[in-house]
Amino acid sequence: MATYVLLPGFWLGAWAWRPVADDLGGRGHDVHSLSLTGMGERAHLARPDTDLETHITDVLNLIHYADLRDVVLVGHSYAGAVVIPSVADRMPDRISRLVFIDSGPLPDGMSHLEFAPPEERSRDAERVRTEGDGWRLPPPPWRQLASEVPGLPDDTLERLVRLSAPQPWATATTPVRLAGAWEKLPRLHVLCGFPAAEVRARIGVVPAFRHMATESSAYRELPGWHWPMFDRPGELAAILHDAAV
């Protein structure tokens, strides 16, 4: 039996992990899905000063107060890029492995926003200003994004539209601060949006990818949507199970 902590990316809460968590739990694992502050059932706690540090503290407190050890720490997208490396950097003795779902760890001093292309940054900043009261990024047009995803169940899409919450903008603009302790831990990258060959090609030319070039990094390809917990939950759960055995 392994202990998993599952962290969602932008706009999502613990609810997004339910099919994956149920599958892992059925295999005998101890699974903790966490809604970060301001998301999911904790949406009412969102504030303009909810930032990356808030979310790091959420995870550190879960591990501390639940006395979790040998944790397989799983982060999707934003949570993979900046949250799980930060947690592991501060509590490396409690973590056995880091799993990045369609993401990778950003270098020290880089914010999640800086990873996006300039036009996307400008578009999101304008949405925050005009639709998010100046401090929240509204969810994307899920039905439009999902229109080209084959086999996505209608009830899954309905839950995605109904349960997503605006993302506190400060979580995107806060630079990650890393001291290096996390780099000693083994890592698995589950790649959905692009193959491992493309990642390797970018490592030498794109600074944001440099932490993906280590001997402790392994890659598993799971082609499909950026949100595999919705379109391929069973296969994602199987990969996570394999990561801990």
From TrEMBL:
<protein>
    <submittedName>
        <fullName>Alpha/beta fold hydrolase</fullName>
    </submittedName>
</protein>
<feature type="region of interest" description="Disordered">
    <location>
        <begin position="114"/>
        <end position="140"/>
    </location>
</feature>
<feature type="domain" description="AB hydrolase-1">
    <location>
        <begin position="5"/>
        <end position="238"/>
    </location>
</feature>
<dbReference type="GO" id="GO:0016787">
    <property type="term" value="F:hydrolase activity"/>
</dbReference>
<keyword id="KW-0378">Hydrolase</keyword>
<dbReference type="InterPro" id="IPR052897">
    <property type="entry name" value="Sec-Metab_Biosynth_Hydrolase"/>
</dbReference>
<dbReference type="InterPro" id="IPR000073">
    <property type="entry name" value="AB_hydrolase_1"/>
</dbReference>
<feature type="compositionally biased region" description="Basic and acidic residues">
    <location>
        <begin position="118"/>
        <end position="134"/>
    </location>
</feature>
<dbReference type="InterPro" id="IPR029058">
    <property type="entry name" value="AB_hydrolase_fold"/>
</dbReference>
<dbReference type="Pfam" id="PF12697">
    <property type="entry name" value="Abhydrolase_6"/>
</dbReference>
